Amino acid sequence: METNQIMSAIFLIAVLILVLPSFLSTNNKLRQLLNNLFIWTVIILIIIVLIYIIL
Question: Contact, 27 vs 39, CB < 8 A?
Answer without folding.
Answer: no
